[in-house]
Amino acid sequence: MKTKAISLMLVSWYFLSGISSLVFAQNQPSFQGLPFVTNYEALSYQAGIQNFDIIQDDLGRIFVANNLGLLEFDGKTWSRYGLNYTKVRSAFLGADKRIYVGSQADFGYLDNNESGDLIYTSLADSLPDNLKDFDETWRVFGSGDLIYFCTFTRIYTYDGKVVHAIDPKKRLDISFQVENQLYSQIQGEGLFKVNTDKFELIRNGDFFKDKRISNVLPFDRGRWLITTFSHGIFLYDGEIKPFLIKSGNWENRFLINYSARLRNGNIALATQNAGLFILDKDGNVLIHLDKSSGLQDLTINFIYEDNQGGLWLALNNGIARVELSSPFSVIDDRLGLSGAGYAALKLDGNIYLGTNNGLFVWENGRISFIKGTEGQVYSIQDIRGQVVLNHHNGTFLIKDRKAVQISDVQGAWILKQHPTQTDFFIQGNYTGLSLFQWKNGTLAYVKKIKGLEESSRVMEFDGNTLWVAHGYKGVFKLKLSEDLGEILENKLYNRAQGFPNDDLINVYRFSNRLIFTANGGFYGYESAMDRFIPLAEFNDLFGYGTVMADLEPDELGNLYFIEQARLGVIKPQNNHQMVLNSSSFNKVKRLWNDDLANMIVLDNQNILIGGKQGFVHYQPSLDLPRTDEPKVFFRKIRNQGIDSKLIFSGHGAGDGSVVDANESPFSYSQNSFSFEFGAAHFPSGNEVQYQYFLENYDQDWSAWTIEEKKEYTNLREGDYVFKVRAKTIFDQVSRPVEFRFTVKPPIYRSVFAYILYGFSLISFLFSGFKWLDKRHKTQTLKLAQEKELELKQKDDVIETITLQSEQEIMKLKNDQLQSQIEFKNQELTSSAMNLIQKNKLLNTIKSSLKSLMEENGSQELNTQLNRLVRSIDKDLEGVEDWSAFAESFDQVHGKFITRLKEKFPELTPQEIKFSAYIRMNLNTKEIANLLGISVRGVEIGRYRVRKKLGLSRQDNLSDFLLRF
Question: Where is the Two component regulator three Y domain positioned along the sequence (predicted)?
Answer without folding.
Answer: 684-728
